[in-house]
Amino acid sequence: MKCLWGGHFPLIILLYLLGDVTSQVNPGVCRYPLGMSGGQIQDEDISASSQWSESTAARYGRLDFEEGDGAWCPEITVEPDSLKEFLQIDLRSLHFITLVGTQGRHAGGIGNEFAQMYKIKYSRDGSRWISWRNRQGKQVIEGNRNAYDIVLKDLEPPIIARFVRFMPVSDHSMNVCMRVELYGCEWLDGLVSYNAPAGEQMSLEGQPVHLNDSVYDGAVIYSMTEGLGQLTDGMCGLDDFTHSHVYNVWPGYDYVGWTNESFPNGYVEIMFEFDRTRNFTTMKVHCNNMFMKHVKAFRQVVCYFRSEADWEATPLSFSPVVDNVNLSARFVTISLANHMASAIKCQFYFAEAWMMFSEITFQSDTAMYNTTLAPPKTGSSPPTSTQPGDDPTHKIDDSNTRILIVCLVAIILILVAIIVIILWRQVWQKMLEKSETFAYSHNNPTSSSAPSEQESSSTYEHIFPLGPDYQEPSRLIRMLPEFSHTSEDAALTSTAVTASKAPTATVAQDGVPHYAEADIVNLQGVTGGNTYAVPALTMDLLSGKDVAVEEFPRKLLTFKEKLGEGQFGEVHLCEAEGMKEFIDEDFSFNISDNHPVLVAVKMLRADANKNARNDFLKEIKIMSRLKDPNIIRLLAVCICSDPLCMITEYMENGDLNQFLSRHEPEGQIALISNVTTVGYSDLRYMATQIASGMRYLSSLNFVHRDLATRNCLVGKNYTIKIADFGMSRNLYSGDYYRIQGRAVLPIRWMSWESILLGKFTTASDVWAFGVTLWETLTFCKEQPYSQLTDEQVIENTGEFFRDQKRQIYLPQPVLCPDSLYKIMLCCWRRNTKERPSFQEIHRVLLESQA
Ligand SMILES: *[C@@H]1O[C@H](CO)[C@@H](O)[C@H](O)[C@H]1NC(C)=O
Ligand SMILES: *[C@@H]1O[C@H](CO)[C@@H](O)[C@H](O)[C@H]1NC(C)=O
Ligand SMILES: *[C@@H]1O[C@H](CO)[C@@H](O)[C@H](O)[C@H]1NC(C)=O
Ligand SMILES: *[C@@H]1O[C@H](CO)[C@@H](O)[C@H](O)[C@H]1NC(C)=O
Ligand SMILES: *[C@@H]1O[C@H](CO)[C@@H](O)[C@H](O)[C@H]1NC(C)=O
């Protein structure tokens, strides 16, 4: 059943049929969304201290809404210790509020503002504001971790209020946006405050029992004034007053108690004030009756009523039967005989040395509380437990009726079960159909992650198969069974409905985010190739240094052909003369003197903007770090004048994809058709070199992000060097999935977490290596998953994520021995930690060669 609450299901209506009403509020049931997301709360009842713009006004602060710019955002950044900003909701009447939900500004991926913490203030009359505290006295509530998840928090104690303010709090200056919802029900008691003598302290066998009203929200000096507290928190005390429902509190927590020693008149007077004049039927007082510990319910109560300004002359008096037998705590019901009043003053007479109350409720007019479960919108299923205490208002005496109801219930349950099955199927179907676009926020690899865990996240407009509704990534994850949250014992504890178990792309950002910060970072560098993701630490080290390569005289380059192009530049194949003089001695560049060599020249167009220039210079610095026999090396640069160039190695046989396409495996067909062949051992040798180059890259914590045969160059004797300009080449545009004309992604080579979460790590390079190995073994005769469309490839990624054995793996190539296919399958393991390292892959390939 649990899953049902995640959606908006009509069968809730069926459950209503089973509903019941009761005369006092039940916090376990009183958890209805009060109308921020549902729209019952009008725009004019939502206000705020300030707004960033008209499109982030208070009325956009509705949970789960995407209107306007996606949330309420205050005008200025939230500073530590300043509580100036708030979002205020006027519920128009008193409500019992048990739960709050918050969410940040996601706005289809553009937004990334949320409140990590917040406080709540509330008011019953609009003038006296009270700061909410939990039962431990803490005011700050943990809020959101990202811009899209809804986080629900139980309010313990619950609030009785008409006005509620959400006040974002931060420990550093930051932009905050919020969407909120309140959950609860109308406060039918209409009680605004009770005034009573302060609760006292009992000494029981030498131990203190504190009978004060610990959550009273009015003033407490000698007496309690103008507040509500434990007598209205919906929580009845246990039979033994020294114990409590609440964890980790002092003895006597649930009760407010007094001793006859302090009240010479023999009674305790409590005054109740109401929101308006009401027609009262009953008052119920929940009393302790542990007579052997000198606690009893009251002997008599005398109540006075005030309707307009004056107290009625004749009071109402009631004497319950003093119970010397039953130790149970109980509700004592007092008939108030349809008195009209806006205030009631009652004198409770001691029957023993002590008198202890835990709840007092009022029934007036004809209003009754529902006990039907609320249909929560978000995910936590409210507990169904009902309060201890009787409900005399709605008893079913007729046994025929009872049988009828039992039958109805049975029929309805069967119907419900059928509907559940149907809906469940539909939900799954929906998830498998259609693509949706969403985006991730961008985080620079700034946080100094552990060297072995280096990763970078890129932003790109994002695709995932889902229904027509807009879906955030985490919402999606939540719908997947392996991430459905399990903590359902939610009655008294905080329930955070987040996909905290799921890996999410967003990381709390340092620095100040800006509105509309929608920088779509793609993998592409300025000249069209992919850029390596580099640990922040390395970048810092590089930033100080001058480029460690020589300036090369431009005139010694001879253009041969254009290899590819990007937004701000091109990649040319050139011949360079006299290159030997310009390169490091430690680099054995096996060329005979004065013989021109083939080089690839990445060239920035002269009209490129400043950012592009900076990116290009950064790329030079990164490339200059790479010194490995299996990685294309930066040979020289031309940065003294425009256009800026970087000159890298090139290999005479071109890239591995084209190379293998021109060749055939050894065998009959090759003999007949007379094409050149490549043996299996050569394929394995080339794969080993790729693994070796990647091992080097990963040792520097560089992430390639576009490993594929098109990015491996082939030299003499099957030597391989890994390059990075495959993405710039028109030839391979079919290998990339273009998103809104901006970012291109090699989805057929990408791991599920790169596609779904924007996470690029060495482990995702390992995944791409598996695909590269597969290409190699199939002689690049077909694209990976050639039978699938791009959308289907992305759907398949979802299956990898869900891991329900429905994912499609690339098949074992004909030439490929089991041992090699096993490596591939290891590379495509769902869990990144279970994938082998390049070191291991290299070792296994090397050993299989021997
Ligand atoms: C009872 O349930 C209805 C239906 O959702 C709701 O509108 C109403 O506010 C509830 N009443 C109370 C007192 O909670
Ligand atoms: C109630 O008594 C407890 C225990 O002495 C104390 O910690 C708490 O502050 C008191 N609360 C109020 C509101 O007086
Ligand atoms: C109060 O309610 C009762 C029962 O609904 C009704 O009979 C009585 O007339 C009401 N009293 C007033 C003053 O309206
Ligand atoms: C004692 O009172 C409680 C609450 O009113 C009731 O449920 C229980 O049955 C009573 N026990 C006895 C022995 O009468
Ligand atoms: C308080 O109640 C106890 C028990 O009923 C009684 O013995 C005692 O005299 C009372 N004290 C006062 C001051 O009334």
UniProtKB/TrEMBL annotation:
Membrane topology of the entry: Single-pass type I membrane protein
GO CC terms of this entry: plasma membrane; receptor complex
Low complexity bias (residue ranges): 375-390, 445-459
Region spans: Disordered: 373-395, 440-459
Keywords: ATP-binding, Cell membrane, Disulfide bond, Glycoprotein, Kinase, Membrane, Nucleotide-binding, Osteogenesis, Phosphoprotein, Receptor, Signal, Transferase, Transmembrane, Transmembrane helix, Tyrosine-protein kinase
Transmembrane regions listed in the UniProt entry: 403-424
Residues of the F5/8 type C domain: 30-185
EC assignment: 2.7.10.1
UniProt name for this protein: Discoidin domain-containing receptor 2
UniProt source species: Salmo salar
Name of the encoding gene: LOC106560289
